[in-house]
Amino acid sequence: MTRIFSGIKPTGHLTLGNYLGALRRWVQVDQHAADALFSVVDLHALTVDHDPGRVRRLSRQAATLMLAAGLDPQVCTLFVQSHVDEHTRLAYLMECTASDGEMRRMIQYKEKEAQERARGRSVRLSLLTYPALMAADILAYQADEVPVGEDQTQHVELTRDLAVRFNQRYGHTFTVPRATRPPVAARVMDLQDPTSKMGKSHAATAGIIYLLDEPEAIRRKVMRAVTDSGGEVAYDREERPGVANLLDVLAACTDGDPERLAQDYDSYGALKKDTAEAVVEVLRPVRERHAELCARPQIVADVLREGAERARALARPTVDAAFAAVGL
Ligand code: ADP
């Protein structure tokens, strides 16, 4: 059976981008089609300046939202990365497999390094080595597929390279995984700046829709989304990124096709109104179920404990074999 691994890092409140780019497909497709593991990858949240209490709260919130969105612990495994020591053990072997040059070439590293420097902060070494830990997250489970948004494709490519290199040097140890993407909304853009992605680690702005936003806040944000002065609704990601983003979001929420939807609208106002309502409806059950789960925290705690036990049992033989292969 196909093995799937993917994760979300608790660096902020989950956004519509996380939901449409990843979580919704994990719920609707991946958990049923494969042996799937989903993780709150909290170690990755330490790669930039962090507050311990906030990381703990956000980890719990992310896990709760993953359940609220419909991940079913009866059919998939949900766990917190730091509960399973195999990730950090294998990350070291990945650091010994990768070169510093290939880490420095990662677009996300370059962007985040620039952000940290702009804020006058020193850059943590772990920000550079982040993809080694991510490779370990994936390879420890012999994952075949990694369902992610477009922003993570480069990291999965590097994971493939590391798996191939390790296997060549030390004998076959790891499955070589591949990234998979949703058909639409693989890159949801910021509503106020449609040239940059809607990211949960960015400072909160009116351009970011959070999964726990109230319906009124969602409507306000969508109605104020930046478009352009063209006025005519057409799907063109390069020339008209704001309108294309709204069409992508509407298409993802209604299982439609963005280019075909463009033909149904002759004003931005109508497009925004329908997009806002579609987002409100898609997120409504998630918000309601989240509130129910918050009232029963033991459910989430039990799921995460059992998830970590299963994850540990799966990862340990592979990581032990990797240690043996390198001569330890
Ligand atoms: P973030 O960048 O918001 O901190 P993570 O790195 O935790 O998100 O990613 C969790 C998942 O959500 C990944 O599969 C990532 O590709 C996806 N994702 C994040 N932001 C977006 C976005 N704006 N559009 C589509 N997918 C996204």
UniProtKB/TrEMBL annotation:
Residues at which L-tryptophan binds: 137
Alphabetic keyword roster: Aminoacyl-tRNA synthetase, ATP-binding, Cytoplasm, Ligase, Nucleotide-binding, Protein biosynthesis
Where located? Answer: Cytoplasm
The record ties this protein, via Pfam families, to: tRNA-synt_1b
Q: Where is this motif: 'KMSKS' region?
A: 197-201
Residues that hold ATP according to the record: 9-11, 17-18, 149-151, 188, 197-201
Q: InterPro entries, alphabetically?
A: aa-tRNA-synth_I_CS, aa-tRNA-synth_Ic, Rossmann-like_a/b/a_fold, Trp-tRNA-ligase, Trp-tRNA-ligase_bac-type, Trp-tRNA_synthetase
Membership in a protein family: Belongs to the class-I aminoacyl-tRNA synthetase family.
This molecule's function is given as:
Catalyzes the attachment of tryptophan to tRNA(Trp).
Q: How does it assemble?
A: Homodimer.
Question: Which protein are we looking at?
Answer: Tryptophan--tRNA ligase
